[in-house]
Amino acid sequence: MNILITGAAGYIGSHSTVELIQAGHHIVMLDNLINSHKVSVNCIEKITGKNVPFIECDLRNTVLVESVLRDYMIDAVIHFAGLKSVSESIKYPIEYTANNIQSTISLLIAMKNSNIKTLVFSSSATVYGEPKYLPLDELHPVSAVNPYGRNKLHIEEMLIDLVASDPLWKIISLRYFNPVGAHESGLIGENPIGIPNNLFPFISKVAAGELPYLKVYGGDYPTYDGTGIRDYIHVMDLAEGHLAALRYINKSAGYLTVNLGAGFGVSVLEVIKMYELVSHKKINYEVVERRPGDVAMCYANVDKAKLFLNWTPKRNLNAMCASAWYFQNKL
Ligand code: NAD
Ligand code: UD1
Questions:
Q1: 240 C-alpha to center of ligand 2: Å?
Q2: pLDDT higher than threshold 90 for residue 292
Q3: CA-to-CA distance for 249 and 57, rounded, in angstroms?
């Protein structure tokens, strides 16, 4: 298939682009590089041995997006592009909405005008808000607890309306849990600009000696060791999930929401221990106050992904930490 990948230079987009190219798809990468670097395009070409068209463009440029869809005879779109920091979204709610919602509307209009009606959308476990029960399945009630989450929910609702208006649309919203790790080549991975907010990139920098110590946010959660529990999923398992979603969507119609996670929770202290094991480095840390907005536990029920997409995650916590460390050493 000819597939347009929006946000393709970013963390998850770049790994998924590699996976899809290796599965034989023809990919067109689109990104405005607001949170990524063009070098990831070269890395993808190096890994896959293929030339990959890259369009540097803001998704809100509907006319240009429409011409890309037509010129490359695109069959389906995977929509990763967006701003993704919860804390930033609280500080800049209008900018987040202007980017995340307007770019999605622009893409959908361009797709509609070009008669392309197959879409995979990057949603997030954040749409579940404070968990009422665990593990979280797709029937768990949704609620927005921050502007970023509100953007994701709003987009999911738009997509439901779209499918209801025209049954020829085929759309899957994938709700990711905590994607971590890197491609085995060590050429692409997660390398946020500035000091990382998220656990894995922060630990990598501590292990590398670039940051002095990790602040463990909260040691008094009602969990087995007092620290927060999350569902970390290897980014390559996530990439394979997109391939599975595309296969499914080709044989079906309508709208589907699917969780992509490992299906089990791991504590912050367990991540630290595993990272120390694979890196042979001491991870200095200090337990501090809880981070506002954090929940004690969040992990997925991934039965629906198995049932509908025939997808199950394969890589364990050791592989997640080892690949993150390998990537860190290649930076
Ligand atoms: P990322 O920031 O690495 O990648 C997103 C890409 O989108 C960036 O390269 C950025 O430059 C591009 N972009 C942003 N706005 C754009 C616009 N208007 N036009 C064109 N390009 C634009 O983030 P990621 O971690 O790869 O996340 C990809 C998607 O998955 C996002 O939608 C994010 O909300 C969602 N998601 C991520 C996580 C996570 O933990 N990483 C979890 C759940 C959901
Ligand atoms: C956060 C976002 C989520 C988003 C995801 C990826 C919030 C509330 N949630 O998830 O919506 O999809 O990032 O961008 O912001 N931790 C530490 N020290 C650190 C960093 C993290 O102890 O320096 C702990 C956290 O308290 C948490 C766990 O590590 O228990 C994972 O944190 P993080 O990687 O930031 O992801 P989430 O908060 O789960």
A1: 23
A2: no
A3: 27
Q: What is the pLDDT of residue 100?
A: 98
Q: Where are the domains of the chain?
A: 2-181+232-261
- In sign, the C-alpha dihedral spanning 315, 79, 68, 253 is positive
Q: What is the DSSP letter of 128?
A: G
The CATH topology of domain 2-181+232-261 is Rossmann fold (3.40.50)
Cα of 2 vs centre of ligand 2, distance in Å, is 35
Burial class (CB in 10 A: 0-12, 13-18, 19+), 36: buried
pLDDT of residue 192: 83
Give the residues surrounding ligand 2 with Cβ less than 6 Å away: 84, 86, 124, 126, 178, 197-199, 202, 214-217, 228, 230, 268, 291, 293-294
Q: Mean pLDDT over residues 127-147, rounded? A: 96
Ligand 1 centre distance from Cα of residue 82 (Å): 4
State the pLDDT confidence band at 193, using cuts at 50, 70 and 90.
Answer: confident
CA of 33 to the centre of ligand 2 (A): 23
CA-closest residue to ligand 1 atom 28: 80
Q: Whose CA is nearest to atom 15 of ligand 2?
A: 86
Which amino acid is present at 290? R
Whether 259 and 138 have beta carbons less than 8 Å apart is answered as: yes
Which ligand has the minimum distance to the alpha carbon of residue 176? 1
Q: At what angle do helices 11-22 and 39-48 cross, to 10 degrees?
A: 20
| pLDDT recorded at residue 220 | 98
**Ligand 2, from 193, 198, 285: best to mutate by most atoms within 8 Å of Cβ?**
198
Predicted local confidence at residue 5, as pLDDT: 98
- What's this model's pTM, rounded to 2 decimal places? 0.98
Q: What is the mean pLDDT of residues 129-136?
A: 97
pLDDT in tens, 235-280: 999 999 999 999 999 999 999 999 999 999 999 999 999 999 999 9
**128 CB less than 6 Å from ligand 1?**
no
